[in-house]
Amino acid sequence: MAQWGALTFLGDDLYCHQPFCQQVLAQGCDFLFTCLPASHATLYEWVSDLERSGAIASVTHTRWTGKQRLTDTYRFASDLPLRDTYDALLVHWCEMTTTDAKGKVLYRNAWATSHTITAHNVIDVAQAARSRWKIENENNNTLKTKGYHFEHNFGHGKQHLSSLLASMMMLAYLMHTVLDLLDQRYRAVRAQLPSRVTFFEHLRALAQYLPFEGWDELFDFMLEGLKPAPRKAKTRINTGCGLIWNCCFMASCPVGLSPPLV
C-alpha cells in the first residue's frame, strides 16, 4: 500500500455515498469505504450481471491461524457506478469471504474504493480496509475503557465544557503515546505497570500526597519504588550429619545447630 502515496480515508458504509466520496477526491485524497448491498442496490446489480457473465475476477488465499486452516476468497471488479444516476461516480469494488475447512462462512465484507484493484494488490486492499478495526480497538477502545473515561461527558456545560474535556482526554492520550515512543523513564515505569488503569491510580495517589518538582523526579521515584526487593541471602553449609541446610536464618536446623554468623 506504500506505493499509493496519497492519504486514504477509511470508513463504514455510512460514508460510502457519492457526495462524500467526491469531497474526498476533491482534496487530492483517496477512499476505501465499506459497501453493503442494502445501501448500494445499483452497484450490486452490476456485480450480479458481471458474475453471470464470468467477468468477476477472484483470488484465493489459504492461511493457517495456529488453530485452523482458513481460506480467504477475494472477488473484485472495476468501474462500477456508485448510484443510479447518469453522473454516477465509478468506483472499484472488492469482496472478501473467509471460510473454514468445512466451508462455513466465518467472515464476509465488501468495499468500494478509488484505488485500482488488481490480482496483485486485492489482498492488501482488503487488509487496509480491515485495519479500521485495529484503529477502533487500539485507540478508541483505549480511550473508552482504559482509564481515560472518554464515554463519560462529566456534564455538558452551558457552552463548550463537554468538547473541552473530550479534547483534553485526547491530548492526554497523545502525550502518553509520545512519551511511550521517546521517554525511557516512562517506558520503564509502564513496563512495571502495563495496565493503564493501574498506572493512573499510582500517579493519582502519589500526586495527592507527595510534591515533585517535575515528571523526571516523579518517574525516578516510581522506578525506585517499583524495583523488586532483594532476595534474602542463603548459605549452604554441611551439618556434618549428611544433611545440607539451606539457611535463611529463620528456619530451625534439623539437627539443632545454630545459624552461622554472616
Jot down its keywords.
two-stranded antiparallel sheet, 262 residues, elongated, single chain, alpha+beta, 6-stranded mixed beta sheet
List the helices and strands and how they pair.
Elements: E1 8-11, H1 18-26, E2 30-34, H2 41-52, E3 57-64, E4 69-81, E5 90-99, E6 105-113, H3 122-145, H4 161-182, H5 184-192, H6 196-209, H7 215-225, E7 235-238, E8 244-247
Parallel strand pairs: 1-2
Antiparallel strand pairs: 2-6, 3-4, 4-5, 5-6, 7-8
Helix pairs in contact: 4-5, 5-7
Instruction: Give the number of DSSP strands.
Output: 8
Q: What structural category do the secondary elements indicate?
A: alpha+beta
Percent in helix: 25-40%
Total of helices: 7
Low-confidence stretches: none
Distance between the termini: 66 Å
**Topology as a string of helices (H) and strands (E):** EHEHEEEEHHHHHEE
What summary fits the major beta sheet? 6 strands, mixed
Broad shape: elongated
With strands numbered from the N-terminus, the spatial order across the biggest sheet is 1-2-6-5-4-3
Radius of gyration: 30 Å
Mean pLDDT: 85
Q: How much of the residues is beta strand, in percent?
A: 15-25%
Overview in brief:
By secondary structure, the chain is of the alpha+beta class.
Can you walk through the features of this model?
By secondary structure, the protein is α+β, with helices and mostly antiparallel strands. The chain has a domain at 2-131. The protein is 39% helix and 22% strand. It is built from seven helices and eight strands, in the order E-H-E-H-E-E-E-E-H-H-H-H-H-E-E. It has helices spanning 18-26, 41-52, 122-145, 161-182, 184-192, 196-209, 215-225; strands at 8-11, 30-34, 57-64, 69-81, 90-99, 105-113, 235-238, 244-247. Strands 1-2-6-5-4-3 form a six-stranded mixed beta sheet, sandwiched between helices. A two-stranded antiparallel ribbon has the order 7-8. Helix 1 (18-26) links the parallel strand 1 and strand 2 (30-34). The model has no long low-confidence stretch (mean pLDDT 85).
